[in-house]
């Protein structure tokens, strides 16, 4: 799964040229930022859901895959603007799917132990995987970036793909949007409070189940969004669900589950490790990633920005 | 009368801070062998933090802590427990899905240092000993029930039984009668008295109910805002106006 | 901008794992009855070995390896309340010990087969030391990381492991490539392993382990070094998981990276849940259902994962004690209603 995972992470092994030339530095930097951006979008949804629901959603990978598959369908059906339509529609459809999952399954399991929730979402991953096979088949699909952002532009002698800027912009928008939501709005305050004291929140007139459903839908939305964003960059195919979930776990666990800042830092760290690893020691790049995660867990078992579980 | 008995537990200038907050602030405590020693004080006075320092769940920021002349400050909880200091917790803290008998057996296995034993039936040989402990706390008839099905009072009794299974020299009881019916409370008070008088056990307890405190304690330490406000034989402390003012003031 | 710093509360009140082995009294007054079911099962398995054709025997071989794998995983899961998504590390390492021992050092099968569990146990020490620093979900994810690391190393260190292709070879002596011989060997290993694990479960160690699962802090206050205790069970589980991996080689003659993958780690967890992780033989029953379900279903439907996922979802939602667990709980309930007291059996 090594090569697959590197592909999943969108690492471009642009190791041409002399290691320290200016253009290589720019290329590496862009590689780091692009990898980190796409990881951040998917990991932040996972960590957001954990923060409010205390639940690790393995099916997050399915939402991501569905986002990508829906994008390929929409691009094929809607001429010219298919991608931009997909960028809005796919995440919304996936969010609806998330609502269904939360209401029909997870809501009944909140009072049960972690293992139950973990296994339920694992079961959902398996179910969604086979349903996706029925809907989209086994073949590899792919879309190209929309025409407006095809090609590349030159920075410091390096060719930077325009589409990389789109990914970066989406990641920044997601980060800023979440920051604003969580720290500047009453809704955000409720979301942060829901895990600490749901009874109190409920007593003060907040519809707690609605908040939980909403957060889960938002997490699914972000997973779907990341699927769309990543679709022009890599093969869209069965199995990408299980791959991305491992990558997202690594990011979220390094940063600390529940922490958005942690997800950002974790994405950057993995982006750096992946990109530089691909340059300096290609066959060890993925190993570094896991070793890094294990090191972080050994020193701070709750991640860099997380809080210890009792 | 117990002022001449040997000192079992001695804390000197014991301090624990959380950031700038001094939860326990230079507390001196001397507990003599065989006495019932109460620690009282309004909510937030630092009693629970003090107890957690004694059992090793928290590490002291500074100060010394000795059990029978040996320093225990900073040791991990399981080591302190093996040295003879056992606690019954304030909140019910049992093994919900184990039977009552099994719970006590597990504690006994630990006390006999056989927890790592994978190949014997040693735990089976503990039935009689476990029943003795259960009889002591009045749970002899409930041995085969699942622990979580017990009444609140019985769960607290089981809590004490688990501590007793460690055959401790010093028993820490954190609000042993909290949430109990008057009948259950009385039963607990009698149990504590019996353990001290008959078994020579040293007991430290924290308690809100003043009648209970002054009814059974040999010595009382009053805490307020992390510090020791008063310390002495129960009748003296009861006569201390300042104590009563602060205590009753914040209680009423 | 941390979303939440709180302890799990309210929304995720911890429900303790069911433990029916400890709560359910068994007929100790009639010890022969207690031994009757396992003995009968082994007898049936032995007879099957004599009457079945090579193909179904192969399926039974697979089941036997999975029975050991699942039961060893359940030492952590049902016994210790430790959800590991990394037991495939040991399963895979067991298989690779046989394969690589043959490939690089020309070690004979009998050496490597009995070496494999010790390699797994030795490896479990450093992994356990790190992973057990974390709790609950973090422990699960930490073990998952080790699983992926092992999988990734096996794929990328081509010179040592032959990469993604894996190692195929005639490792196994001809006495074991014979379907009946191989089957009886695996059956013997399975019986001995289960007896040993059963003893571990029903020992002072096992009792303390279950107590830690029920209430970690309380057991610590009762003088138990929880970290060390959990490390020991992690090592014991690693020992038997690696043995199961070596059993896998007996019928598959191969070792490849997927054996180390986290989805492989998920399989024994599944089996435990299906059969009931609170009952000692639950995972074994789960392994039977899983493997036969798989072999039968793939013949008729493409959507094996869909069925598996659906069954798993239904079980965790509506039947959390699993097959044997539900049975045992019903029996325990009826005993209690009758007011039956069977004092010595509380931990049998």
- Main β-sheet of chain B: number of strands, strand sense, barrel status? 6 strands, mixed
How much β-strand is present in the residues of chain B? 25-35%
Roughly what is the average pLDDT of chain C, rounded to an integer? 81
The largest sheet of chain C, given as strand count, sense and whether it forms a barrel, is: 2 strands, antiparallel
Distance between the termini of chain B: 33 Å
Total number of strands of chain B: 10
Helix content of chain B: 25-40%
What does this structure look like?
Chain A has helices at residues 2-8, 22-53, 60-77, 82-104, 114-136, 162-184, 186-194, 198-203, 208-230, 240-255, 260-280, 285-299, and strands spanning 152-155, 158-161. By secondary structure, chain A is mainly α. A two-stranded antiparallel sheet of chain A has the order 1-2. In chain A, a hairpin with a 2-residue loop joins strand 1 and strand 2. In chain A, helix 3 (60-77) packs across helix 10 (240-255). The longest helix of chain A has 32 residues, at 22-53. With 252 residues, chain B is α/β, with parallel strands linked by helices. Chain B has helices at 47-55, 77-82, 100-111, 127-137, 152-165, 182-199, 210-216, 234-239, 241-251; strands at 7-18, 21-32, 36-40, 62-67, 70-71, 85-88, 170-174, 202-206, 219-224, 227-233. In chain B, the strands form two sheets. Chain B has a six-stranded mixed sheet with strand order 6-7-8-3-9-10, sandwiched between helices. Chain C has 348 residues and is mostly helical. Helix content of chain C is 73%, strand content 1%. Chain C has 16 helices and two strands. In chain C, strands 1-2 form a two-stranded antiparallel sheet. Chains in contact: A-C, B-C. The interface between A and C is large, with 80 and 62 residues.
């Amino acid at each position: 799964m090594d090569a697959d995972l590197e592909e999943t992470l969108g690492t471009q092994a642009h190791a041409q040229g002399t290691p320290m030339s200016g253009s290589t530095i720019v290329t590496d930097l862009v590689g780091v930022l692009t990898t980190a951006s796409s990881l951040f979008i998917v990991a932040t949804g996972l960590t957001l859901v954990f923060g409010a629901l205390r639940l690790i959603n393995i099916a997050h990978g399915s939402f991501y895959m569905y986002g990508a598959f829906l994008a390929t369908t929409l691009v094929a059906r809607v001429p010219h603007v298919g991608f931009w339509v997909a960028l809005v529609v796919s995440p919304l459809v996936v969010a609806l799917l998330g609502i269904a999952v939360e209401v029909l399954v997870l809501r009944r399991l909140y009072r049960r132990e972690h293992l139950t929730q973990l296994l339920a979402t694992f079961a959902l991953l398996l179910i969604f995987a086979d349903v996706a096979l029925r809907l989209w088949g086994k073949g590899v699909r792919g879309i190209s970036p929309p025409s407006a952002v095809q090609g590349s532009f030159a920075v410091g002698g390096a060719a930077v793909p325009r589409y990389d800027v789109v990914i970066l912009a989406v990641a920044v928008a997601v980060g800023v949007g979440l920051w604003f939501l969580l720290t500047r709005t009453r809704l955000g305050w409720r979301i942060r409070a829901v895990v600490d004291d749901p009874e109190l929140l409920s007593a003060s007139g907040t519809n707690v189940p609605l908040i939980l459903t909403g957060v889960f839908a938002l997490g699914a939305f972000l997973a779907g969004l990341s699927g769309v964003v990543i679709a022009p960059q890599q093969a869209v195919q069965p199995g990408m669900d299980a791959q991305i979930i491992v990558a997202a776990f690594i990011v979220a666990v390094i940063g600390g589950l529940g922490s958005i800042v942690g997800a950002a830092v974790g994405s950057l760290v993995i982006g750096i490790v992946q990109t530089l690893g691909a340059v300096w020691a290609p066959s060890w790049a993925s190993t570094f990633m896991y070793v890094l995660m294990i090191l972080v867990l050994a020193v701070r078992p709750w991640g860099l920005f997380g809080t210890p579980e009792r | 009368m117990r002022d001449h008995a040997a000192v079992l537990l001695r804390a000197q200038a014991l301090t624990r801070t959380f950031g700038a907050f001094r939860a326990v602030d230079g507390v001196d405590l001397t507990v003599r062998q065989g006495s019932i020693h109460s620690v009282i004080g309004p909510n937030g006075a630092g009693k629970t933090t003090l107890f957690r320092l004694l059992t090793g769940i928290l590490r002291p920021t500074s100060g010394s802590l000795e059990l029978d002349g040996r320093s225990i400050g900073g040791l991990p909880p399981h080591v302190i427990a093996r040295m003879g200091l056992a606690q019954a917790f304030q909140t019910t803290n049992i093994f919900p899905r184990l039977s009552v008998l099994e719970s006590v057996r597990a504690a006994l296995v630990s006390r006999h240092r056989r927890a790592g034993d994978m190949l014997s039936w040693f735990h089976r040989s503990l039935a009689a000993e476990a029943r003795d402990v259960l009889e002591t706390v009045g749970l002899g008839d409930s041995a085969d029930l699942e622990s979580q099905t017990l009444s609140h009072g019985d769960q607290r009794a089981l809590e004490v039984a688990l501590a007793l299974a460690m055959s401790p020299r010093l028993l820490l009881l954190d609000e042993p009668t909290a949430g109990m019916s008057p009948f259950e409370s009385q039963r607990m008070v009698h149990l504590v008295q019996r353990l001290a008088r008959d078994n020579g056990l040293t007991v430290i307890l924290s308690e809100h109910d003043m009648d209970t405190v002054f009814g059974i304690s040999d010595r009382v330490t009053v805490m307020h805002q992390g510090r020791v406000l008063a310390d002495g034989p129960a009748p003296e402390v009861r006569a201390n106006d300042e104590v009563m003012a602060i205590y009753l003031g914040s209680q009423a | 901008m941390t979303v939440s710093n709180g302890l799990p509360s309210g929304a995720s009140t911890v429900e303790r794992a069911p433990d029916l082995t400890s709560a359910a009294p068994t007929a100790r007054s009639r010890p022969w009855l207690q031994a009757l079911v396992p003995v009968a099962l082994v007898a049936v398995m032995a007879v099957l070995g004599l009457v079945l054709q090579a193909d179904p025997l192969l399926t039974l071989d697979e089941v036997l390896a999975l029975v050991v794998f699942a039961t060893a995983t359940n030492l952590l899961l049902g016994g210790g309340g430790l959800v590991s998504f990394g037991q495939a590390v040991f399963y895979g390492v067991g298989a690779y010990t046989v394969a690589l021992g043959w490939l690089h050092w020309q070690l004979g099968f009998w050496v490597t087969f009995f070496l494999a569990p010790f390699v797994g146990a030795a490896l479990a020490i450093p992994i356990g030391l790190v992973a057990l620093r974390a709790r609950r979900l973090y422990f699960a994810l930490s073990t998952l990381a080790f699983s992926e690391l092992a999988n990734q190393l096996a794929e990328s260190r081509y010179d040592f492991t032959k990469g993604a292709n894996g190692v195929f070879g005639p490792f196994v002596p001809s006495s074991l490539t014979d379907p009946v011989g191989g089957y009886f060997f695996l059956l013997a290993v399975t019986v001995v392993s289960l007896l040993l694990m059963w003893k571990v479960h029903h020992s002072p160690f096992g009792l303390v382990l279950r107590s830690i699962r029920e209430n970690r802090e309380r057991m610590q206050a009762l003088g138990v070094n929880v970290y060390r205790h959990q490390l020991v069970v992690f090592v014991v589980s690693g020992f038997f998981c690696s043995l199961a991996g070596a059993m896998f080689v007996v019928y598959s003659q191969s070792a490849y990276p997927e054996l180390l993958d986290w989805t492989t780690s998920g399989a024994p967890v599944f089996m435990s849940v299906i059969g009931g992780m609170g009952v000692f033989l639950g995972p074994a029953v789960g392994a039977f259902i899983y493997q036969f379900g798989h072999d039968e279903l793939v013949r008729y439907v493409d959507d094996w994962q869909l069925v598996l996922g659906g069954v798993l979802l239904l079980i965790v939602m509506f039947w959390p004690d699993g097959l044997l667990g539900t049975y045992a709980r019903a029996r325990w309930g009826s005993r209690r209603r009758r007011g039956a007291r069977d004092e010595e059996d509380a931990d049998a």
